[in-house]
Amino acid sequence: MVLALPASLHAEAVYDDRIASNALPQSTSALQAEVEKISSAVSDLDHQIAMEWDRRASLLHRINDTREPLPALVNLYKRLERQNKLERLLNKLEQSKTRVPEKRREVASPAKYIEVVEPTEPATLSDSPGITEDTTPKISARKGRPALNRGKYYLFPFAGALFPSDTTYELPLGDGKLSGNTGFTAGLTGGRRFGNWTSGLSLGLNHYKFNSFKDHHSFLTNSTAGKGESYLINLSGRLGYTVPLSKDLWLRFGGAGGLGYRAEGGMFYFGSVKTPLETSKKATLSYEGFAELGYRLTEHLRAGIGCRYLGAAKHGNFGAYGAHSIEVGLGGDF
Q: CA 210, CA 279: separation in Å to the nearest integer?
């Protein structure tokens, strides 16, 4: 016995079978395309992470290499840490893992099986060969800037105030003393450096005027001079030692000895009597001691202030010469 179905019912069943047979391949193809897209993105992230590990390993190798300039490597390392590129890449990887199945699974398909593999966890610093978790370099940058090259030679003009001591003057009846006003000094020093030691020459002019004379062997009081002057031109060899106080500040002290040319004379009144002093011009030995505080303005320019004691031997009726001075100057190094 044959059971006959309605024609409309038979056609509708055939149409449903076609839709079902076509839907499965289409959904499988879409899933496969999505999986391939995610796998490609994960592969790109793995490649970028591998490049960052290589850069980190190269950086640590350079830091441990003592032949490289250490301060520059430390700055490079800190700059890389501030950028923190590795952390951002790891965050992207964690976000991509939420879209990838946690376990390996197989997706059924009428034609074949598609295998989806979860990406492996990124390696830690301890897993990488030759890299430890403590990536802080065991070095410290050298503090302070390197000292400027001041050059081997220096030239230093100076000028200042001269404060003379009383000068003995010989008289037939006994010695008296000549007193002077504040004078001036000016000159030029130059020489060569040998580490903290300096050697050189100094040429200076020193001048002041007498203002009174006192005779110790009479009852006369001090008398005002009409005109009285003292000149000393000295050329001496210097030797000094420098004590650095900071990179740009130092203290130098030392002494000098040489030859001086003295010229002195004047006119004084003893009571109402106008009496000239014997004029004397003669070369004598000279000596000095000095201390100077210097400051470097630029690599080749320096300023200084100092004090000096200058002495010279007696000549004619004039006794030994002595004077203190305070001097300032601006010089160069080359």
A: 13
